[in-house]
């Protein structure tokens, strides 16, 4: 990955080309700026566009960085998001050897072995939370996926849980559905939007008007949740 230098700021930058792209688009992601273009667009055209958009790129890049959620602290009283709800981390010690995670109302309890060295506590809490979130996501997302697949009268081949920095889901030409486990932190309606979006790709493997109409058939306010992920997606992390 290369970098753009704008007013002494170094911004990670990547270029993507595909015959599927019909126009040049600029995207400000959490960790990079991406330019997507058809294969027949010249390098000069891309460079001219980047030069003309420097002020816009820098403005939105700095805004994106300012909006990023600060790193979580794995301490008693820290707050995390789960299905759109704000839950509080509560740490306890016990005499056993296993780390246990349980959700009780709005509190997420992590029971740690009494003899766990203090320097290993944070790393173990983070690993335990990721495992717990993935387990909840695997169950909940599969249930919602099956529910909407039945409603939309489509069948997918395989479902996999993934971790992706910039994608919430994907659907392959073979009918495989991948979902980012971090969407379990989003509100249920947001989760449903991602699932309906990917299932709609089983009918239209593109983003045509017909595709978006199919999404709207099952979620009239899908544009609200599409915008929600653009605005809040960077906050869905541990």
TrEMBL record:
InterPro entries: UTP_pyrophosphatase-like, YgjP-like_metallopeptidase
CDD domains, per database record: M48_yhfN_like
Stretches of the chain forming a coiled coil according to its record: none
Superkingdom, taxonomy of origin: Bacteria
Span of domain YgjP-like metallopeptidase: 22-231
PANTHER family, alphabetized: UNCHARACTERIZED PROTEIN YGJP (PTHR30399), UTP PYROPHOSPHATASE (PTHR30399:SF1)
Official protein name in the record: YgjP-like metallopeptidase domain-containing protein
Organism: Desulfosporosinus hippei DSM 8344
